[in-house]
């Protein structure tokens, strides 16, 4: 994290202004504790109906928090003083499904036909799990969460199709029920687990080799618990190889004005 | 209800087949107890993105259960053996925002660019309220639920905008908490109330004069409780006066294969 005094104590709008000014370009984990952070997908309008329908049909891996108006860099609900082209610390530009690099502003790439999708992120439910006394192993071990391709088919919608990607967190057997209950109450950020304890049942052959992120230790008495993962929509988009897509860079999220607790009752 | 022997004991698919054959054209209230019934809006594709976004931004009054593929009369999830052009007992055809009559099949009106939206209905939560020991007054009094225009603005999306329409049920003071809890658990069918006890706060000037449906008696010790209502999306559409829209006729719903209880955990 860059050396900005007291950044951990700043409000969402204060942090967004620092990011907008180019003064903070790091991952957002740990910032504005308690506020929802969001993933980003920006697509041309011609793909927006199929993608919105894809998220409607697959809400567990693709929980849409908000969709911008066509061409707009503003939001109505999750943030007021916001510029979607500058308020993520880092973006990725994709052309024909291939990443062409990371930038800290997409102002120069903006087009009048772009639609921005804010998608819920498991950061929100992890802070609730920690509050419920559950250790999040990848946080303890300071690595990225392990993620896997699965055999769980998604409902296709127009051009978009694919299988679900899941994230895995080892949970002590006696805390599995708590973990299910805490996350089931948060459907806007992936909700309850999709599988408990049996990776082979969802097509994961070797749990020690995640397809994305890093492996974490699974201790005696713990079971691997799998949640629908926000990598799913990005994966589905890249299979379509659209001419032009913008996403956030992994870990570099939008910090919204909405608290995780409020999100539970939306 | 038409005199079909044992109709109340038939399964959803059996009832849909009777309806498809033109043998049942009445309201569906009380049929296939425990199964979700759905409202219908059919729009041309050119309006579908704006309308889908409108429902995403206003999920409480416009809870989308499923959206068909473009031009398709089938569903993926809520019913397998289904024909959307024949399986509602009665439809309304609108041209330029004006109803031009009711029909029992829309097969002859079908176009390749039509998209069907199935929208959740308060029938689902009423059966749960009754199971929780709460009397539903308009059922007891055998009239339509009272509904009101409000001053609660909706989030607009493209061409669609408007205010929320609400339904009202009188609830004894000592059952209000139960009514809130039961319905809050069912966000796919409007979820928790939007207002408890103060009609003026949401712009309702005279509770004895509903804008739609019929007034019911409010007894001493009861408070009026207001829920987001499925008339909201139809109202918003008619303000746009599209060239061509099909809806179900009020009370004449699709009986789906999905149980209300399952819907709670979707």
Automatic annotation (TrEMBL), chains A, B:
It comes from the Bacteria. Its EC number is 4.2.1.-. It is an enzyme of class 4 (lyase). Gene3D superfamilies: PSTPO5379-like, PSTPO5379-like domain. InterPro entries: D-Glu_cyclase (IPR009906), Putative_hydro-lyase (IPR038021), UPF0317 (IPR016938). GO terms for molecular function: lyase activity. It holds the Pfam family D-Glu_cyclase. Keywords: Lyase. Belongs to the D-glutamate cyclase family. This is Putative hydro-lyase FC80_GL001799. It comes from Liquorilactobacillus cacaonum DSM 21116.
């Amino acid at each position: 994290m860059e050396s900005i005094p007291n950044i951990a104590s700043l409000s969402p709008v204060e942090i967004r202004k620092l990011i907008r000014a180019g003064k903070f370009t790091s991952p957002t984990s740990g910032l504005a504790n308690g506020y929802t952070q969001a993933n980003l997908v920006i697509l041309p309008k011609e793909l927006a109906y199929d993608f919105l329908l894809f998220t409607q049909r697959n809400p567990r891996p693709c929980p849409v928090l908000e969709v911008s108006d066509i061409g707009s860099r503003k939001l109505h609900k999750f943030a007021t003083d916001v510029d979607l082209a500058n308020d993520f610390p880092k973006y990725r530009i994709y052309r024909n499904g291939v990443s062409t690099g990371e930038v800290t502003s997409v102002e120069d790439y903006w087009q009048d036909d772009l639609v921005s999708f804010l998608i819920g992120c498991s950061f929100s439910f992890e802070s609730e799990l920690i509050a419920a006394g559950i250790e999040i192993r990848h946080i303890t071990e300071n690595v990225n969460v392990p993620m896997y391709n699965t055999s769980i088919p998604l409902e296709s919608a127009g051009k978009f199709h694919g299988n679900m990607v899941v994230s895995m967190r080892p949970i002590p057997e006696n805390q599995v029920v708590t973990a299910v209950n805490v996350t089931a109450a948060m459907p806007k950020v992936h909700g309850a687990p999709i599988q408990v304890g049996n990776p082979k049942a969802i097509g994961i052959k070797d749990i020690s080799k995640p397809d994305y992120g890093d492996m974490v230790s699974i201790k005696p008495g713990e079971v691997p618990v799998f949640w629908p993962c926000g990598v799913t929509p990005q994966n589905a988009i890249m299979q379509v190889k659209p001419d032009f897509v913008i996403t956030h860079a992994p870990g570099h999220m939008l910090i919204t004005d909405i608290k995780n607790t409020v999100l539970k009752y939306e």
